[in-house]
Amino acid sequence: MSTNKKAFVRYMTLDRCFANRGRFYTIKDLLQACNEALSELYPNEKGISERQLYDDIAFMESTQGWSIPLDRIKDGRYTYYRYSDPDFSINRRPLTMDELNRVKAAMEVLTHFIGLPQFEWIYEILPILSDRLGVSGLGSSRPVIDLHSNRDFTGLKYIDPFYQAIVNEVVLEVTYQSFDKPVPETFYYHPYYLKEYNNRWFVFGFNEAAGKHTWNLALDRVVDIKQTTRTYEKFEFDWESFFYDIVGVTRYDNAELQTIELIVYPESAPYVYHKPLHPSQRARFEGDRLRVTLKVIPNRELIQLILTYGKNIEVVSPASLRQIISQELAEACRLYNTDKK
Questions:
Q1: How far apart are CA 76 and CA 69, in angstroms?
Q2: N or C: which end of the chain has fewer CB within 10 A?
Q3: Residue 7: which CATH number?
């Protein structure tokens, strides 16, 4: 186990001893208490030395620690240690102004999740934090931060049911309306993973009818879901690796990883340099232009991303992607043809 965890055990033990008004603790008593606490968690390791104990006490008294109010009471040849303030504890130490400001900033961020599924607990925790920490004024001052979230997204109500089904391993009966189907279809679905992309939520899981474990559903296309008593089929899978090679959520079957080469022109070059298009991005400036390489599996989200830059990004290779982008831009130009009647 890490040294930090062991130090935390020692600090908590010393805090309890210093706060105990029913007993006096000498250095030997404190050493015994610390080593007993450590031996319960780490029975195969040696205890700490007396020197380490003195170092721990010095740290707790320092401003880098908790600035504890520690008395050293002399009684003959013994010295006893206890808090001068009987109500003090490192667990009850008041926050500094800097800490309070950090807590308040974090609470301001939390307020932006109110109203979203799975975040109902925020209604309860914010008043408690405000009362216990003396942090007030949330919502009463002018806003200074905005988190972009699509609260009108029609699939939000399904985030929590899918999340609960994943955690509790429940098979769902899903009624789903695809963009390319005239009527909804119903199938049994074993959900595994939720993902947000571009202000839309998606769930990945096993579609029994299709026999595929990475079946992607857009939550805004879900019509209805019902819990079933069917046996849940577990699926051990590295979802982070699954998404690493793509932009967005679409990964085509048997698609291969490709090296995409782009030229980003001056207007967008600094932006793309500091905000990469994908984690695999490698970039270098050539004058005021940026040459970018990506290692991804091309999909529709990549195409849409490139198109958002318009004239400021050119696809160099592969030729197939360059042709797709060229055709998309040509079609767009035709829509704005001045000769069009």
A1: 22
A2: C
A3: 1.10.10
Q: Is the peptide bond before 182 cis (omega within 30 degrees of 0)?
A: no
188, 218, 244 — which closes off a domain? 244
* 102's tokens: 């950090």
Whether 304 and 227 map to the same domain: the answer is no
Q: How far is CA 234 from the centre of its chain?
A: 24
Where is pLDDT greater, at 164 or 265? 265
Answer for the pair 193, 202: CB distance below 8 angstroms, yes or no.
Answer: no
The number of angstroms, rounded, from the C-alpha of 28 to the middle of its chain's C-alpha atoms is 45
Domain that holds residue 37: 3-83
* Mean pLDDT within 150-159: 72
On whether both 236 and 161 belong to a single domain, the answer is: yes
Helix (H) or strand (E) holding 48: none
Question: In this model, does residue 1 exceed pLDDT 50?
Answer: no
pLDDT tens-digit map of 294-327: 999 999 999 999 999 999 999 999 999 999 999 9
Q: Please report whether residue 200 resides in a domain.
A: yes
Predicted TM-score (pTM) of this structure: 0.59
- Token digits of residue 305: 């991303």
- Asked if residue 199 and residue 266 are part of one domain, the reply reads no
Backbone φ/ψ region at 69: left (φ over 0), alpha (ψ -120 to 50), beta? beta
Residue 105: pLDDT band (50, 70, 90) is confident
Is-contact 199 219, C-beta < 8 A? no
* Range 17-31 average pLDDT: 93
